[in-house]
Write a structure and sequence with these properties.
single chain; alpha+beta; 5-stranded antiparallel beta sheet; 7 helices; 14 strands; elongated
Length: 265
Amino acid sequence: MKFTPSLLIIFNLTSLLVLTFQPFPSLALVPCRTTCGNIPINYPFGVDDGCGAPQFRHMFNCTNDLFFTTPSGIYKVQSINYLKQTMVVYDPAMSTCSILQPHHDLVLTDIQSVIIPPSPDTIFVLLNCSIDSPVLNHYKNLCFNFSGHSCEELYASCNAFRVFHLLTNSSPPCCCTGYDTVKFMTMNILDCTHYTSVINTDDLKGVGPLDWTYGIKLSYSVPDTGCERCRRSGGACGFDTETEMMVCMCSSSTNATRECGKNKF
């Protein structure tokens, strides 16, 4: 059969239309990052808006490393234990056994104080306090020892805090206390110049300050929204950015109410 110019034009147009409307392979790409640096990002957390649980919206950002944002600053996330529902963060402005920093308050939003507060085994140690400090007078019951340790040990064991002893030839008043104390009273009200925080205090019996782990462990909670059902179906749990209602994200363009393959919008 001999093709005329008209037939060739029709054939080429037909071929072009067939190619144009060929379906592309479906991409099972969920638009939520699953890692930031070396930290895995799983529900209820998310660094992309619409990912994770809406209660934690805008609390995290990823710039090479994962950071937790509060009104008092940005804290680097050191680890997340999804089984125990805990997260360890580090305050770069906090004093430790090896470095002395100006005092710095930890301030959480109201919702953060409810859904991701410091864990009970995180102890805040107030150092170089005035003799008029509220925790040494009206609220001295807020101070306690933990695992056989007292705050005075830090003056004797840590180079960073030994300076207070050298300046006064004595150990200034100090206080080991819980999060509720620093939640309701600033460092200025507490009348202490420095603080440090120690985690995993239940395991520190017989362990000296040089080997303590300094940081802040946060314990989070989140209501059961059926997220496991979504994950088993191959999706990722997220929420509608306008209504903040839960959605199961099945691909870069497909969402479902509870699980992939069902109840699609």
